[in-house]
Specification:
Blueprint lengths: L1 E7 L5 H17 E5 L2 E5 L2 H14 L6 E7 L3 H4 L18
Antiparallel strand pairs: 1-3, 1-4, 2-3
Helix pairs in contact: 1-2
């Protein structure tokens, strides 16, 4: 499944800046950054639950914001993109 993860972590303190880095690193491990605090992730149900648990353990619910969007099929009918950035086709051929 394709999910979009967005977050807004309070960076007013040193602890908040550390949380922001940890949240970003967790998202980078499973997806691609499409904007500063927005990631596209191609995951199965188990990976989705693991990512959700990891991110919930990192953020502070009273200071931060975390959102998950599950994109339904067909993806090409749901997403339009413009400009120079092109997302990775997770289902396409892998070229190394």
């Amino acid at each position: 499944m394709l999910i979009i993860v967005t977050y807004d972590v309070s960076t007013e303190t040193a602890a908040g800046r550390k949380r922001l880095r940890r949240v970003a690193k967790a998202c980078e491990r499973v997806g691609q950054r499409v904007q500063k605090s927005v990631f596209e992730c191609q995951v199965d149900a188990m990976e989705y639950e693991a990512l959700e648990r990891e991110l919930l353990a990192e953020i502070k619910l009273d200071e931060d914001n975390l959102r998950f969007y599950r994109i339904t099929e067909p993806i090409d009918m749901r997403i339009k993109q413009y400009g120079t950035f092109r997302s990775i086709d997770f289902n396409g051929p892998l070229v190394v």
